[in-house]
Amino acid sequence: MKKGILLAIASAFTFSIMNVFVKAASVTIPVSEIVFFRSVIGALLIFLLMRRAQVAFSKKGIPMLVLRGVLGALYLLAYFFTIAHIPLGDASILAHLSPFFAILLSIYFLKERMTRGMLLLFPLFVLGAMFLINPFSYESYTVYALVGVLSAFLAACAATSIRFLTKSHHNYEIVFYFLAAGTIVSLPLMWNEFVVPSLTGWFYLICIGVVSLIGQLVLTSAFTHENIIVVEVVRYIGIFFNVFWGFVFWGEVLSIYSVIGGAIIIGASIALSRKKTPAPQLKKVLT
Hints:
Elements: H1 3-25, H2 31-52, H3 62-85, H4 88-95, H5 98-110, H6 116-133, H7 143-165, H8 171-190, H9 199-225, H10 228-234, H11 237-250, H12 256-273
């Protein structure tokens, strides 16, 4: 299996673990506060990694780096808000609408395209997603669901900017701007609703910061090795992971449709990894 595909699957699994901690923490901690600590912990850790790897901050491309950071921060706020208010599986399904937006954005801005093989496999991902959505019993068509769709669009925008930035910036720098922006954006939002976390709450927040940073590094690396369309579509497997965790920890029903949908997505991911994609040649940015 190609490295980019493996990294995309690994990032989906890592972020699904982060989602578990986010949903658990949101019971007692406001979403803006979760985003703040998620961002500030990650920013400090990535800064240390940059120092250790002797990665300097760029003097060019700052506006795009800032834009990527702001898009990522807004995505976090929208996604965590959705996770806090509807079942984890439903929130994940909505967030994984991002490939549809990513395809349009990457074709327009990055001039990427889908090969015939990708086009033939893409309906399998849609079919798998439909099994997981199980529209006959989906009950989250509320304002929370609309925020979930917004998070998917923002995620696609952020993914497109990452793909663009990896051509000229180190992965660590891209992630740092994302986390720094998340810290700045969430700080005023949590100012009037700050809650002192319990020991358990601190544990959740620290885990969110560390696990999410790992996931972000893996995802950013995936975009340096593979076409944005492939990465975003393969990440559909994250739906299956999140539905599974929702069942294990909160008793959210894992239906036969979820099992079938997850199996289809996994099979399609493996098949897609064997297809050659027209990803442009990128300079090596991760050392």
